[in-house]
């Protein structure tokens, strides 16, 4: 009997808690944002109008943050369906302030549905802003917040960051387009591997220089991956850009070229193109007293995929040998251009040489890591490329 | 019903009880604590070494407990060192158990509120937890352990699957170089890794409840090996997936690892939610271990019945869990618990064993 009364008592107590979800929130009543872009403050006309009536923040504004909200209100059901094809699937809203969190909360002063960051996928920073404000300041809220996942990817943009979140294609959500474009790396090594918030956490703590994929945007709503922007570790600010070919060279050095191409002209001034089937690399650091040097061994196999040379037959051995040499020269030039940019122009190291040194010579690394960018700019780097054309596709004569 | 009158448990069940009493909230913060102490990727070695040290401590405790069949530390301490000193030491142990129990509930509440149920009041997550645990303990040790048996495989499975899916962001380079700074950082890491096994003190009352106490050493070593293996995997996957620099900037590194990738196509896209929900059951088991330990201690020490003690303990544990004012207090409390675990070992089983050895030798000479 006593046992039974305990049981009943417990069950009654539990029933107090079974009244439903305590802090549940309907997803229909939230604005889910999937992309965010930050620019140097440039108030929109709407904001200026609101401000003249007492809205906005009073402090000197610095940052304009634009968020991309999806999906838009499913307005009505029947009558809108006909034209739904031409309606944009997303809404970009901008807000200006100098604390990202304040900006996020200010959206609640403007919109009926509170914004939530659980589904943030891409974060785009304009280089104009990254040049003025340290990246760790811009990203602090994102790294600290409990909604935003550290799996969000980070990009830079040459122009206005908010423009990269525009698209003219009716069914496309620009933030998802950017995220999915990164996956094209297997087709083109001019795309840098995805950099997520967690990676940045590590870079910030190590005070390491790094690069982020650059995005350019056209007025028509088209975008393009245009190389990478360099963030200097010591200042945490943007210092310059690497072009697409430099980025491709970094992929080669990191052995991260599983797809892409090499294009050059041969002696008869015809274009020949090499399709990368595999690309491996090995960075070998050498320490000789105070002198540091690196040797990079690159091994690649691929296919002669396009030749404009009508006079020679692609299947002939000497033609392939000549092509191999041309491609190797081309790759060597690309690598040298990158080294010049890293060592003389910007004096940073973003290709992973430091990481290799940390692994092979941990004691040396400890001594040099604090001014690694500087020390690297004085190091000599040599390359050894072995490129092999294994086949020439389905045409011979 | 199958309630056994003697309430004994099998060796496997005893192993699971020990596993559950070690494996709890520690896994969420452990990588950071260990990396802060060691500052190299080699800290996985410290985890292994720490586990070995704890195994030795456990063997000492088992050996001591085996001298007094059917008796828990709360009963045999008096025989060895006399009533009054034993009374004080046992109270220390009980307070230790209460503190850990409170700590586990609080960590559970903090994590739940931060990642899962933002907006729910803290008491609403903690109090049902304590109630359900108390209800479970009413069934005695046997019923409790049987629930542990059900939960442990599930929580380990979810944990391992989550880790394996993190392979896509795993980079071996983050774990290299091995022993780049020599062995010194590994030993520095030890001071954190011994602490993560705090809670192994339950051995001192667990052996008394075993059907076959003579098999206790094997069972207890098996029981501690599971958390050791889990901690080892955790540190490997978290360092490999995040790098030690990122770990140092993360409050809950293990959760951040799971938050750093999305799995498209699987039933769950984000692993941290299933992981947290399942791990909450594990935290429940963990908490129940200490609830049991503290209640058992008080009931045996003051010679009162077990069930009323459980009722009395509920508010006490709740109060213990709300003592930390903020998250820093909570982490500080976590450290204090780790250290007091070691201090308690030096205060109770170690001197008890030595005194017992001396006294037994003395007795033999008399005879």
From TrEMBL, chain B:
Its main location: membrane. The keyword Iron-sulfur does not apply. Signal peptide: none annotated. The keyword Membrane applies. Pfam families: Spore_permease. One of its GO terms (cellular component) is membrane. It is found in: Membrane. Keywords: Germination, Membrane, Transmembrane, Transmembrane helix, Transport. InterPro entries: Spore_GerAB (IPR004761). The chain crosses the membrane at residues 12-31, 43-64, 76-100, 120-138, 150-170, 190-208, 220-244, 273-294, 306-324, 336-358. It is a multi-pass membrane protein. One of its GO terms (biological process) is spore germination. NCBIfam families: 2A0309. Belongs to the amino acid-polyamine-organocation (APC) superfamily. Spore germination protein (SGP) (TC 2.A.3.9) family. This is Germination protein BB. It comes from Paenibacillus montaniterrae. The lineage of its organism: Bacteria, Bacillati, Bacillota, Bacilli, Bacillales.
């Amino acid at each position: 009997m006593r046992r039974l009364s305990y049981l009943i008592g417990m069950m009654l107590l539990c029933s107090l808690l079974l009244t439903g979800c305590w802090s549940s929130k309907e997803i229909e009543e939230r604005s889910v944002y999937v992309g965010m872009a930050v620019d140097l403050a440039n108030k929109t006309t709407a904001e200026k109008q609101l401000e003249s009536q007492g809205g906005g923040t009073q402090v000197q504004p610095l940052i304009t943050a634009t968020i991309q909200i999806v999906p838009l209100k499913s307005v009505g059901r029947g009558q809108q369906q006909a034209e739904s094809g031409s309606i944009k699937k997303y809404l970009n809203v901008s807000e200006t302030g100098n604390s990202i969190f304040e900006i996020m909360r200010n959206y609640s002063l403007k919109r009926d549905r509170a914004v939530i960051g659980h589904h943030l996928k891409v974060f785009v920073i304009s280089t104009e802003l990254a040049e003025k404000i340290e990246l760790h300041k811009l990203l602090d809220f994102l790294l600290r917040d409990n909604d935003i996942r550290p799996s969000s990817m980070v990009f830079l943009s040459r122009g206005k960051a908010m423009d990269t979140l525009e698209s003219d294609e009716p069914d496309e959500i620009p933030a998802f387009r950017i995220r999915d474009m990164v996956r094209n790396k297997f087709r083109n090594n001019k795309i840098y591997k995805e950099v997520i918030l967690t990676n940045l956490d590590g870079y910030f703590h190590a005070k390491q220089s790094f690069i982020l994929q650059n995005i350019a945007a056209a007025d028509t709503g088209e975008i393009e991956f245009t190389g990478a922007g360099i963030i200097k570790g010591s200042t945490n600010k943007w210092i310059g850009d690497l072009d697409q070919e430099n980025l491709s060279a970094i992929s080669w050095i990191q052995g991260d070229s599983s797809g892409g191409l090499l294009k050059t002209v041969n002696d008869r001034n015809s274009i020949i193109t090499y399709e990368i089937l595999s690309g491996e690399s090995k960075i070998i650091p050498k320490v000789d007293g105070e002198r540091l040097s690196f040797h990079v061994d690159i091994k690649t196999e691929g296919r002669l995929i396009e030749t404009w040379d009508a006079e020679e037959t692609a299947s002939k051995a000497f033609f392939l040998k000549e092509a191999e040499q041309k491609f190797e020269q081309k790759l060597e030039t690309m690598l040298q251009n990158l080294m010049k940019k890293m060592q003389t122009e910007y004096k940073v190291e973003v290709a992973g040489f430091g990481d290799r040194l940390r692994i092979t010579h941990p004691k040396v690394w400890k001594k040099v890591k604090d001014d690694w960018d500087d020390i690297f700019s004085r190091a000599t780097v040599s390359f050894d490329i072995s490129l092999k054309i294994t086949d020439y596709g389905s045409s011979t004569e | 019903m199958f309630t056994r009158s003697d309430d004994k448990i099998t060796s496997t069940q005893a192993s699971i009880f020990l596993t559950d009493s070690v494996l709890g909230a520690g896994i969420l913060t452990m990588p950071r604590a260990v990396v802060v102490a060691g500052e190299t990727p080699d800290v996985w070695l410290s985890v292994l070494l720490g586990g070995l040290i704890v195994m030795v401590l456990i063997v000492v405790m088992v050996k001591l407990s085996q001298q007094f069949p059917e008796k828990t530390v709360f009963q045999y301490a008096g025989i060895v060192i006399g009533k009054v000193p034993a009374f004080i030491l046992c109270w220390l142990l009980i307070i230790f158990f209460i503190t850990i129990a409170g700590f586990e509930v609080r960590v559970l509440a903090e994590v739940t509120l931060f990642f899962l149920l933002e907006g729910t009041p803290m008491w609403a997550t903690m109090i049902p937890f304590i109630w359900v645990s108390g209800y479970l303990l009413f069934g005695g040790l046997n019923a409790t352990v049987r629930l542990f048996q059900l939960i442990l495989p599930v929580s380990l499975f979810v944990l391992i699957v989550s880790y394996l899916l993190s392979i896509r962001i795993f980079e071996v380079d983050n774990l290299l170089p091995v022993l780049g700074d020599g062995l010194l950082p590994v030993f520095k890491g030890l001071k954190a890794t011994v602490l993560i096994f705090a809670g192994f003190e339950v051995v001192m009352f667990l052996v008394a409840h075993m059907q076959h106490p003579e098999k206790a050493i094997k069972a207890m070593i098996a029981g501690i090996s599971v958390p050791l293996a889990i901690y080892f995997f955790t540190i490997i996957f978290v360092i490999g997936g995040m790098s030690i620099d990122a770990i140092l900037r993360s409050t809950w590194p293990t959760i951040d690892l799971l938050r750093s990738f999305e799995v498209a196509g699987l039933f769950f896209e984000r692993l941290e939610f299933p992981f947290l929900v399942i791990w909450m059951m594990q935290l429940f088991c963990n908490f129940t271990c200490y609830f049991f330990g503290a209640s058992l201690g008080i009931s045996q020490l003051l010679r009162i019945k077990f069930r009323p003690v459980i009722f009395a303990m509920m508010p006490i544990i709740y109060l213990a869990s709300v003592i930390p004012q903020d998250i820093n207090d909570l982490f500080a409390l976590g450290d204090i618990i780790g250290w007091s675990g070691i201090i308690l070992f030096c205060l109770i089983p170690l001197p008890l064993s030595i005194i017992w050895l001396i006294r037994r030798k003395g007795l033999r000479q008399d005879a």
